[in-house]
From TrEMBL:
Lineage of source species: Bacteria, Pseudomonadati, Bacteroidota, Cytophagia, Cytophagales
Listed GO MF terms: siderophore uptake transmembrane transporter activity
Primary location class: membrane
Cellular compartments annotated: Cell outer membrane
Identification of the protein by name: Outer membrane cobalamin receptor protein
The organism of origin for this protein: Ekhidna lutea
UniProt xrefs under Gene3D superfamilies: Carboxypeptidase-like, regulatory domain, TonB-dependent receptor, beta-barrel domain, TonB-dependent receptor, plug domain
Amino acid sequence: MRAIILLPFLFICSSLFAQTTISGRVAEKSGEPLLGVNVYIKGTYDGATTDINGNFSFTTYEEDSLILVASFIGFHEINLPLSKDNEPLLIRMREKVSELNAVVITAGAFHASEEGKREVLKPLDIVTTAGATADVPGALNTLPGTQTVGETGRLFVRGGDGRETKTFIDGMLVHNEYSPSAPNTPGRSRFSPFMFKGMSFSTGGYSAEYGQALSSALILQSKDLAENDRTDISLMSVGADVSTTQATENSSFAGKVQYTNLTPYFKLVDQNLKWDKAPEEYNSNLAYRVKTSETGMLKFYSNASRSDMELYESDIANPELELPVKVQNDYAHFNVSYRELLGENWGLKTGASFTKSDDFAALDTESRDQNLTGFHGKVVADYQYSDRLGILGGVELIRRNVDQILSDESGSFEQDFNEQLGASFLEAEWFASSSLGFKAGLRAENNSLTSKNTLTPRLSAAYKTGDKSQVSLAYGQFYQAPQTQIILSQPSASSEKATHFIANYQWLSEGQSFRVEAYDKRYDNLTRYSQVFDPSTYAFDGYGYARGLDLFWRDTKTFKNTDYWVSYSYLDTERAFKDFPGSFTPTFASTHNFSVVVKKFIDEIKSQVGLTYAFASERTYHDPNTDRFLSGRTPAYHDLSFNISYLYSNQVIVHAMVNNVLGINNIYGYEFADTADTNGVYAGRAITPAARRFIFLGVFITLSKNKGINQLPNL
């Protein structure tokens, strides 16, 4: 009987002996306690949740091979084998880094993407900005860091000239990316903004993957598969075009032909230039996309055009003497790219581009016939080691063959060069936490003409100062071959160098964004000469600097159906290059640039209207009638532009645009005669636009089974 009574007591004691208390504290790597962490024994229901101090405590009857799990959203899960000493535990959890919460390195770059949630710009902004005439550089010139140089139409970035910005499509370099133009009149980008889904416009400190650009890299990402069959017809005051798109489940084809002729327009709008043959261009584009696998995509794109124009240019010293000018260009560009994911962690990108451009320009009895053949091939692999560390590396080959014939009454002179540039690059991006990230890269290049090797570092870092704000820093060295004419005269000409230092602050909220960026850029090895065609006068010891401050504010939230942004740039720059007798502010640089862009959709009249105001302070010019070099100053630049798109029906849009509505006679600079008159005076004249205003009218028609699509996003 006594044994029966003792059995329950012994059972209870045995159970109490097997019961184990597990306790401890959970914290971040920094030591900050974590509230709400789920801590439990793997494979059981035994566990607890941490309190405000990160503490937890629970009991378990389990004994053998215990694994303690700590799980918390946003952090890596911990699996910890338990020992038998029952000591309180200290568990440190490492934060996960995801695209949604990670800091983004933004120093020196503006990004635009159809998918991005953090982007300051969208691709649609490029084509709806008044005054941009649906031209990518035209729209980017409303961003801080750019200077208005109206006589070229190119991108001049932070004290650099137009050739210091290079364009890449799907990672591949584009040679001769601008269409030809008459002297002192702006050219346009050859590539329509409608073909791109994303853009990165770097005003400095760009990735080690890209090179041969002293100031800026414009990186464009073409669209993937089209979703709908459609035909678009555009009837414009400057010409017409027809495009068609055919889409299947795994592929799509698009083709476009365009004809531009400014003769009818010039008859309606008076021009300051005397045209014998107004600019005329034939252009065709083809694009093919095919999905090669669930993660693979092959893209092909081609652009071919022929353009020519003829006009008369008055002699500066004798305005009654009119000299004939002729400009012709035949252009072809082909681009193929392929991307694929190789397993969970590896990615591959490869591509090639080919460019053929034949330029002919003549002034009176002098002419230049220049032919360029360019090739770019690249292979890039990236490896995502973890959510914190990614590595990218690759190799590329850039070939450029140029031949030129210079002719005048005395005969002709031939020049040519064959340049081959091989490069390799390696870049790593590491996140110490979701608030702190670093990127470091190296780029090595070898130029066949100079037989020189260069190794350039690229460094950047970013730190989140809050949920909506962050600061970034960037540093980099960049090399670029001199201008083409210098290499033609002396193929062994040394590459020019720029060193960038950038500090950035950005605040980004839903519908609003603000950024401020300070920079310092140093130039070395710039080309100097007294005569551009005489290599005996060349020296490669030029230098310079550019420093300044950029501000940007954008708001789509405050006013209903209204989007606006404000940009301001301050620039202080000098350089000793070309035929400068010392260090001076170049003629293309202006100290202050300011712009305001406003867009509003008015439901009542089914229209989108846009307004852009641009201001640029005075620019320097050299007057040979004075003893001081580059002492002249132009008037400030002002431009108020307007556009409107009216939705006549779901698939018919009427678009109108007027640049320089106020008709201000902007002066870009002055040019002077080569020799003085009998009184010792050099005659001069102002460089002004070909017309006070540019007016555009167009009707855009879309034919598709999907009645909800039209060309409004393209306007």
